[in-house]
Amino acid sequence: MKNIWSQKLLGLLIFSTTTILGSGLSARAQTVPTPSKISTKAADLLPPQPPAKTTNEPSQEVAQVDVAPGRTTRGGSSYIGIAGNIGLGGDSAIGEGSFMAISKIGLTRSVSLRPSVAIEDDPVVLVPLTYDFTLRGEDVFEETFSVAPYVGAGVVIETSDDADVGLLLTGGLDVPLNNNFTANAALNAAFLDETDVGLVLGVGYNFTGF
User: Fold this and answer.
1) Which of 93, 100, 189, 205 is positioned for an S-S bond with 124, CB 3.0–4.6 A?
2) Three-class SS state of 150
3) H or E stretch including 136?
4) What is the CATH number of the domain that holds 157?
5) Which domain holds residue 155?
6) Is the distance from CB of 185 to CB of 201 less than 8 angstroms?
7) Residue pLDDT, tens place only, 26-55
């Protein structure tokens, strides 16, 4: 009888122990974290890229200057004409009295080329580039005239046996007389062997373009 109770008690202990151990293993199995899957794709391995910054940079526009030989400038029309040169010093055709062929060729709104020739024993060629100012009204003898001053520089070429090339400085006034003619007065200083200075008074016939 004692053996029977001993066997039952032993069986009950074994059953209880087995149940407790099984519960502990099951709980441990539930708490063990499952490792996450590791991606092997190249795109997933790269570090995240920051969003691209969008900057509104002002577009740089290059100013374009239209060059149209013979155009009208803000100082008046282009022209070709004749003039007399009064020599104020020097021994070239500029420094002495001479007859001149003059011209104005508008290039842009404010820049002109003004080639001319002083005709004498040894002609002198003048090629200045000038900056033309805006026409303005001036009262002279109770009359209002539009005048357009200009200043510039260029080269002067003396066509003698010992031809010489020098610096030319010029300044003057254009006075529109009507739609067809423009009066011109200019002072030229040519730096050749010596400084030659001449005062030019003339008139030109207006034209537009070539």
Assistant:
1) 93
2) strand
3) strand 136-140
4) 2.40.160.20
5) 78-207
6) yes
7) 545 454 455 555 555 555 555 566 665 555
Model pTM?
Answer: 0.67
In a domain, 64, yes or no: no
* Predicted local confidence at residue 38, as pLDDT: 56
Residue 59 lies in a domain: no
What letter represents residue 6's amino acid?
S
Reduce the DSSP state of residue 155 to 3 states and report it: strand
Local confidence band at 144 (pLDDT 50, 70, 90 cut-offs): low
Q: What is the DSSP letter of 92?
A: S
Q: 96 lies in a domain?
A: yes
Q: How far is CA 55 from CA 51, 61, 78, in A?
A: 12, 18, 48
Burial (0-12, 13-18, 19+ Cβ within 10 Å), 54? exposed
Domain count for the chain, please give it: 1
Count Cβ atoms within 10 A of the Cβ of residue 143 and give its class: 0-12 exposed, 13-18 middle, 19 or more buried: exposed
pLDDT digits (tens, 9 = 90+) for 152-165: 999 999 988 778 89
Q: What is the C-alpha separation between 46 and 205, in angstroms, rounded?
A: 78
